[in-house]
Amino acid sequence: MKNLKIWDTKYGLYEQDGKSVVSSRFVAEIFGKNHQHILETIRKITQPSSGLSGKFGLSNFRPSSYKNNQNKMQPEYLLTRDGFTLVVMGFTGSQAMQFKEAYINRFNEMEQYLNALNNARLEFPELTQAILEVHEKPMHYHFSNEMDLINRIVLGVTAKEFKRQNGLGDVSSIRPYLSAEQIGYVALLQKADIGLVLTEPDYQKRKRTLEWYFLRLKQKRLGA
Predict the structure, then answer these.
(1) Which own/partner contact pairs does 89-98 have at CB distance under 8 Å and 24+ positions apart?
(2) pLDDT tens digit string along 147-193?
């Protein structure tokens, strides 16, 4: 599992290619199953005679490998949320049900995080990096809060509301639909917020400082 960054140490969730995945070994450990049995279940699910499409199988059951205690390479799979759901569907018992619920919740939280991270990287790449550095375990709202804050100050609305008001649908970025002046203000506030994120943990204080800075920028532009 090279180049995978762990996101949740308790449940073993990783990010791979912008999606959340969990190792079949971790699933076996958490649910108290033999890993070999988990592998056999996955192979049965993904074989052509199962009825599962090859495309779905490749997308949600990703072959991988690891080194065992004897330093020998052994097979495993990386499961997406959908792959995980198919594998554990037949696990019964109250404890198994608790683990299923916990995993589904964690997958949902991680997908929210990855979506917020991707959106933030598109709109505010430098600010996104500052947020990643300052939070030991960044959550999706750490990105969306700062993005919404800057957009509200400059545009009067969040990016989501801006898309709705302008009939933009689900475009990946609102940047192409802003005026040069708006883009300039957003860029300046982003630079200011980078320093604030790194030095001022209080959201309301950051908000007041950015609002004051935006007012000063507008006044200077008008020659006040």
Answers:
(1) 91/31, 91/33, 96/31
(2) 999 999 999 999 989 999 999 988 878 888 989 899 999 989 999 99
- Is residue 52 within 8 Å of 66, Cβ to Cβ? no
Q: What is the pTM of this model?
A: 0.62
Beta carbons within 8 Å of 159's beta carbon, 6+ residues apart: 119, 123, 147, 148, 151, 174
Helix, coil or strand: residue 150: helix
Residue 189 lies in a domain: yes
Q: Which amino acid is at 181?
A: E
Note whether residue 201 is domain-resident: yes
Q: How many domains does the chain have?
A: 2
Residue 101 class from Cβ within 10 Å (0-12 exposed, 13-18 middle, 19+ buried)?
exposed
Please indicate, yes or no, if residue 80 is contained in any of the structural domains: yes
